[in-house]
UniProtKB/TrEMBL annotation:
Protein name, per record: Methyltransferase type 11 domain-containing protein
PANTHER family registered for this protein in UniProt: EEF1A LYSINE METHYLTRANSFERASE 2 (PTHR12843:SF5), PROTEIN-LYSINE N-METHYLTRANSFERASE METTL10 (PTHR12843)
Domain (Methyltransferase type) ranges: 44-145
Source species of the chain: Acinetobacter colistiniresistens
Gene Ontology MF annotations: S-adenosylmethionine-dependent methyltransferase activity
Chain segments annotated as coiled-coil in the UniProt record: none
Recorded superkingdom: Bacteria
Length: 209
């Protein structure tokens, strides 16, 4: 994935002008809260962009949040917004990096959150690199919250090709290391009123074979 491409996206558009903008990510927060995670649980949001989820995780009391994106501009937007809201971001770890190649600590994270990144992995090599990092970084019994375009979702996003998924296709792609805990279809409404069909899932990592 191209760093320059995503820098241009976030330099040319406001955070609420991109198709994936959400004012409140209540579905992710409900899934995390349902697991009764402690406030110091280690969470990573990959492809975070300028997501308001970070604000909401801080407000919910989580203290160990890692925020990863290719775009430094996007992360600076989030940082400025947190300061403006007077939210304590001293415990947040900021990573400007490619999720496929970033070096992450082994068996470190309790939760891996990805809303609309994995579906940009359209080659087997990209998918394999991404999943290798997930398996490396997630603790055994850790959770992966993964949202992709559904089978009847868009064929492109932000001008780029995407892969669309059913639960069965996603399970096959993830492999036997993951057990499905939750699935739901969602119709996301973009800031300009268009509908996008998403598949929201949560998986438990069984550990390396």
């Amino acid at each position: 994935m191209s760093k320059n491409y995503w820098e241009e996206v976030y330099q040319s558009k406001q955070a609420d002008q991109v198709s994936w903008y959400q004012q409140y990510d209540h579905k992710t927060l409900e899934l995390i809260r349902f697991q009764n995670l402690l406030p110091d649980a280690k969470l990573i949001d990959v492809g975070s962009g300028a997501s308001l989820l970070i604000d909401q995780l801080i407000e919910a009391g989580y203290k160990n949040i890692h925020v990863l994106d290719l775009s430094e501009t996007a992360l600076k937007t989030t940082q400025a917004r947190l300061i403006e809201k007077n939210l304590d971001s001293s415990h947040i770890h900021w990573l400007v990096a490619d999720v496929c190649t970033v070096g992450l600590a082994a068996q470190f994270f309790d939760v891996w959150h990805d809303r609309a990144v994995f579906h940009f992995m359209v080659t087997e090599e990209q998918q394999a690199q991404y999943l290798k990092n997930v398996r490396h970084a997630l603790k055994s019994s850790g959770l992966m919250i993964l949202s992709t375009f559904a089978e009847d979702g868009p064929t492109q996003c932000s001008g780029l090709a995407v892969e669309r998924y059913s639960v069965e296709k996603l399970a096959q792609r993830l492999g036997g290391n993951f057990s499905l805990l939750h699935q739901a279809l969602e119709t996301h409404i973009t800031p300009w009123g268009a509908e996008q069909k998403f598949l929201n899932t949560m998986w438990q990592f069984k550990g390396q074979n």
